[in-house]
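Annex B, item 7. Sequence and structure tokens for protein A, then protein B.
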Amino acid sequence: MIKKLLLITTFSALLFVTACAKENNTEIQINTQQQIQLAKQNYLLIDVRTPREYAQNGLKEAVSIPYNDIKNNIDKLTHGKKNTAIKVYCRSGNRAELAVETLKSMGYNNIESLRTVVGATNYLENNPIYPIP
């Protein structure tokens, strides 16, 4: 009985760790058409919350990249252009600030934290995303 309980507990813990590891290593998938469209925008808006949070109330203009995955995925959007205008937001502003620091450490120099979804919404009202001709 104890062996069975130990086996179940170990298996449950393994499932939990595996699920957490997958959520913390998000590989964004952007097709060529999306890359072309994003490259032509006046700025990139990035939601740095989890995919689950983004699904609940993410802005349609934003790309979802969790803050801890931004280092591995940002070049797909910017093609390595360090002067790309990037705006980030999250729930409280904490993860957005972490993303800003990560991007700065990578050499990006045109970054702004809009802090929250509300901050991003207000920013979009006055600064719509549009394609650069």
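Protein B:
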Amino acid sequence: MWAMIRGVPHGLVYVRLWREADRPLIFGGKKMRTGSKNPLSDCTLCPRECHVDRLAGQRGYCGQTAQIVAARAALHYWEEPCISGRAGSGAVFFCGCPLRCSFCQNRDIAAGRAGREVGTERLAEIFLHLQQQGANNINLVTATHFVPLLVPALEAAKDRGLRIPVVYNTSSYEKVSTLRMLDGLVDIYLPDLKYVSSALSGLLSNAPDYFETAQEALAEMVRQTGKPLFLSPEGKRLDAEQMNEACCGEEGDLADADFLMQKGVIVRHLALPGQREDSRRVLRYLHRTYGNRIYISLMNQYTPMPGAALKLPELGRKLTQEEYEALTGYAIALGVENGFLQEGDTVGESFIPDFDGTGL
């Protein structure tokens, strides 16, 4: 369930962080984006820079060769309201991951233990089929290591009538050079900012360079998309301020799910148990760096996974309501206006889809 509130939180919802008192597409062409040499032959697509020859079947940190492998392609209703809307987001879940966090909810596909091979032509067909099903967008989930293969699939789909926005859903452990292959093809970026602490990112994601890498990646995402842009139920394009007014103004009687994002960046932060100070550092960085040029999505859905507590004892429990309320209060005190928060019991495997090959 998605909703917007003002004042006291209630219910199982995503809620807009917007203070009433403060109210006051170009698609990619045909040119080669990946350079003359196939980047999969000496793979440095992600910050791991494994230098393996994936064309020859070698596997690097992501665990994948030169063949696209995905686990699911279906309408998905659990994203932020301006992404899922009422009809759902056309989510394609790819297998493998350059980051592979120790607390990952999608560990079966991140580790490559599920999935089916999908060719680029078939992937273009999948995108078009999701559009025919009424998807509000195409949502590419953890696709970093397949970017050179996604480009021709996206271009082919767009040539054949794909007109809904393309969302790139990522951990932010990205190289700017790889993101630039997507410039003009991706309309919305849905990145995480997991940590500031290098000690924490090193311990939980084997990536002590995570924050520095994510900083550069986020800057590139914002450069590509510009400020947030939404589509109203009447087909009118609105900026963030106009959308806020339509939803929360005195005359506003519509919910966020009625306004679909067309361009922009929503940065997600999953609050981890016992890591209040690092979460505050994340929020401070995002707000001071980008202000209202991005949306911030503050999530409470951390689900303890088997073995996670071996890395950090606190990860053996859920986030408490008190921890989460303190963090959302801190975000509001900072002045965050464009954002989302979660409420109610969002913890549990019921929020993890079946990676059974649906839609492939």
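Comment on protein B: The two ends are 27 Å apart (CA to CA).
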